[in-house]
Amino acid sequence: MVASQCDSLNLLSFLPDAGRQVSTALLDPEIGGCVPALEDGRGLLVDPTMVELDDALAEAFERASEDEATLFLSLVGHGEYSDDDFYFLTKDTGLPVDSRRSFLFAQRIKELLGRHSTLDGLVILLDTCHAGIGARQAGRRWLRIVGEAGKRFDLLTASDDRVAANGCFSRSLVSVLRSGHAEFGERVRCADLKRVITGLCPMQTAVHLGFDGTREVAEADQGLWLALNSSPAWRRSPLAGNPAAPRIERLTAGYRPDPKLGETVGHLLTGVRLVAITGEAGAGKSTMLAALARPSVAGSYVPPDFLHAVLFADRGETAERIARELTRQLRRTVPGFADAEDAYRAGLDDVARTGASALELALLGPLRSLAPRRTGSPVRIAVDGLDDLDPGLQRRLRTVLLDLSREPALDWITTVVATRKPDLLPSAFVIRLGQPGGVPGPSREPEEAYGGQPLPGYDTGSPTSPRITPATLIVDVPGQPPVRHELSFGLTTLGRSRKAALRLGDSRVSRLHCEIQWNGTTAWLTDRDSANGTFVNGNRVLNAELAHRDVLRLGDSTVTFISVTQEDQDEEEDRFDVGQGTGAVASPRPDPAVLLELLGAAATRGPIPISILTAASAAAGGPDRRVHVRDFLAGLGDSVSRTRAGLADETVLWTAGPPVLFPDVAARLHARLAAATSEVAVVTGDDEPTLEQSYAAANEAEHFWLAGLREDALASLERRASHIPVENRERWAAWANRAARELGETDRITLRCEARHATWTGKAGDAAGALARFEVLLPIATATLSGGDEDVLSIRNNIGHLLAELGRCGSPSGR
User: Fold this and answer.
1) CB 501 within 8 A of CB 513
2) What does the pLDDT look like over 490-536, one tens digit per residue?
3) According to the 3-state scheme, what is the secondary structure of 367-386?
């Protein structure tokens, strides 16, 4: 934070207090959560000289880059624009402004960004006076200059073409950061602040510009946010801290209330205990559930604080994760729940605790304990994603939902579930939504973002289906060495202007000459009304699909399109003597195909922690730093859902449609994901698992299995066993069924899964059931593996122990 009073100009009465307030809010762990960027612990620089400001900025950039952190720069004081250049006026600035006596801020930011490539984004807040040139015009120059470095940034300025006076921008900024806003989501972003501050400062109009590293965007990167939303309405809602909050925000963006929403609320308010919202894929089920969770977008249909818990489940969930999340929300939203949970657990003896499931321990038991002393309005719980859960967990969660709707003592609990299969909930009141597009209001759900089509670039099962491959442009500008530019996923503009993602120093090339849309398999070229035309292989075109080795001519320059597998890429580079010249601005995102494929493989198992994604990417030859992974994710926009974006525990989920990979590609990718996941430490004792540990417990074995490493999958299941015996019993039961289905009932892997199922049946308190399972298994294993096999001997040994435990005489059969 820089608060600067220029000695050559009038005194600004709000300095340095306005700067101090902004700094304090951003450094508050409950609001901005920032740490000082300077080594001496200063978060505020008051009245610096030009040299002091330059030294401070250089140090701040260096420290943020070393930590791969986002850097926040807030400036309040005097500013001048001269010849379309912005100068921030320090204490010793002389007038009139020029580059010798004044601080040329944008240019210096550009230089520092170019020097510090691992900076994880930049957020700039600018509250200065302007000298006749509007901030929007100046902001476009910021976009051009700072954007050359290819980094993500967000810029919010105080005014457009009017003078920013009296520190209204900074004071309003602090007020909003401290009080929050009911209509904001979990994070406060510059785009949100622009709308609010403009209303609070009617004499000026705030201007927002965002850049995702390639192009200007309206909302900027999800990871570039200023603060947590401090609104009391938000913080007491079930969305606060909810991993589904970003998804709910995205689903309800631009939401128009639907009468069916009012019908749903009416039933929940008038005593219906279980409501099923159903319809075909894309009909808006998830969107309606999201609107119930976010009353601020639902008009008058949904009362404030309507829901007490909201679960958006993903494939790859475990019962423990679901129970933990629902419990976390209910502790905060339901008075007395936390005490009831403690009382319930304290009243369990060892036998009851051993035989209880995660959902029983964390949800059903505490709710039953709370029932006798429950007063007040009903408790409402919403669940989405039931259809996508693994079959065993789907069955168990369905049983819990039916118990909540049927037990007389729990008649104060109402539940609403979004499902394509209402027959799963036979006692539910069903609300049917129309076909996609038939009901006004709800936006498309993530599962239908590609209209039900597979993710571009992935195998659909057809022998002719393409897969994602890297795409490269070889740019040859006369008088300059050829340059290799790796295409980013999405849109790339080519032209002479600095606004172009790929800039060509050729006077016969138009400012924005043409653009290429790349989706991982197909490149589509569009001419942008260029003066001298766009040619492909000698033919002038307005639109064209590019093929491997097509040659584009733009002015006097040529651009060769290369689309090859990674294995062939080195050979192609040898064909072209490609250097790192200055004729084009290279993308900072290496090998995006690797990340796209990893995201596609991981998507079937739910959100993946960015730490694991980065480790797998590095091992597969993709980006090896978290900041570069985020650079790539920023360009994917709504194709990915990011939870806690920008933080160390960020998770990422591909939402653009379920991909189907070639088997050999999928196995290789899952092997990388398994190796990265196996580096995560195992949970010890009763410690609360970290995000990475929860992911590893749910998915490490799955990745090993899909990589063809069956023994490693079983070892993972053993290593990451739950501390709740029933959960281990259910997990091994599911794996035994899967192994039998995929490998056969007599395969050694299947027999081992069956044995572990029997073992955990006993550990869950059912010794007789365990004995019965082992006795059924013994003759099958003996016939398949021979009597002296170690697995057979282990089964016989377990039978002997169980017979002794149950006080029975006899010896294991199946000799």
Assistant:
1) no
2) 788 999 988 888 889 898 999 999 999 887 677 889 999 899 999 99
3) HHHHHHHCCCCCEEEEEECH
- Nearest-angstrom CA–CA distance, 115 and 64: 12
CB 557 within 8 A of CB 549: no
Whether 471-563 and 237-432 are alike in CATH topology: the answer is no
Cα separation, 191 vs 207, whole angstroms: 9
Is the pLDDT score of 73 beyond 60? yes
d(CA 555, CA 508): 5
**Dihedrals phi, psi of 48, to nearest 5 degrees:** -75, 160
Whether 766 and 757 have beta carbons less than 8 Å apart is answered as no
Residue with tokens 């807030």: 74
Q: Which two tokens stand for residue 773?
A: 């399972």
* Secondary-structure class of domain 237-432 per CATH: alpha beta
Angle at 478 between CA 476 and CA 484, to 5 degrees: 20
Kind and range of the H or E run holding 227: strand 227-228
Could you give the angle at the alpha carbon of 648 between the alpha carbons of 647 and 649, nearest 5°?
A: 90
Exposed/middle/buried for 84, CB within 10 Å: 0-12, 13-18, 19+?
Answer: exposed
pLDDT for 436 beyond 80: no
CB 98 within 8 A of CB 83: no
**Looking at domain 2-232, which CATH architecture does it have?**
3-Layer(aba) Sandwich (3.40)
Tokens of 141: 């120059």
User: pLDDT-derived band of residue 439, with 50, 70 and 90 as boundaries?
Assistant: very low
515 φ/ψ sector (left φ>0, alpha ψ -120 to 50, else beta): beta
Statement: the pTM of the whole predicted model exceeds 0.90: no
Please give the pLDDT value at position 128: 82
Q: Which of 104, 94, 127, 100 is nearest to 9 (CA)?
A: 94
Identify the CATH number of the domain defined by range 471-563: 2.60.200.20
Residue-range domain boundaries for the chain: 2-232, 237-432, 471-563, 589-720, 721-814
Predicted pLDDT of residue 489: 67
Q: What is the 3-state secondary structure (H, E, C) of 86-130?
A: EEECCCCCCCCCCCCCCEEHHHHHHHHHHHCCCCCCEEEEEEECC
DSSP state of 84: T
